[in-house]
Specification:
- The chain is α/β, with parallel strands linked by helices and about 150 residues long.
- It has a single domain, classed as Mannitol-specific EII, Chain A (3-Layer(aba) Sandwich).
- It has 5 helices and 6 strands, in the order E-H-H-E-E-E-E-E-H-H-H.
- Strands 1, 2, 3, 4, 5 and 6 form a 6-stranded mixed beta sheet that branches.
- Helix 1 runs antiparallel to helix 2.
- It is globular, with a radius of gyration of 14 Å.
Length: about 150
């Protein structure tokens, strides 16, 4: 089983998301994984994320969003992290702007493993100090180290 820091590469961290809204943010997150060579089909990944989002927003509240999906093209799960310190409208369940986004892409044939990774991420985020540390981190490498 992978640890979160093992599936997050510094190249998959955006310290300042450029997106102005939810759709752009999801595109930017998928683009991080595409640019890092983690996925080959950015359009298919984006569609899978959007299908999931149409069920219910993954903007879980308290400035956090955890979009997730599964992909048949991956050999192992991947994580992308993005910050938008000023916040963006992500249609979060509490109506508040989202400042931290975590895109988890799991394996299509291993849904239980994806749920375990989401659970680990949720546990980390329950401690208010963790999101604050992520917002204060000065480099993608520092963001990754916080997951160790």
């Amino acid at each position: 089983m992978s640890a979160l820091w093992q599936i997050l590469e510094p190249s998959c961290v955006a310290l300042q998301l450029q997106a102005g809204g939810k759709a752009e943010a999801l595109e930017e997150l998928a683009g991080l994984l595409l640019k890092a060579g983690k996925i080959r089909d950015g359009a298919a990944l984006l569609e899978a994320i959007q299908v999931r989002e149409r069920k219910i927003s993954t903007g879980v509240g308290e400035g956090l969003a955890l979009p997730h999906c599964a992909s048949p093209e991956l050999a192992s799960p991947v994580l992308a992290v993005a910050r938008k310190p000023e916040g963006l409208d992500f249609e979060a369940l509490d109506g508040k702007p989202v400042r931290l986004l975590f895109l988890l892409v799991g394996l299509k044939d291993k849904p239980a493993a994806q749920l375990r990774l989401l659970s680990r991420l949720a546990r980390l985020l329950r401690d208010p100090a963790f999101p604050q540390a992520l917002l204060a981190a000065e480099s993608p490498e520092a963001v990754r180290e916080l997951f160790r």
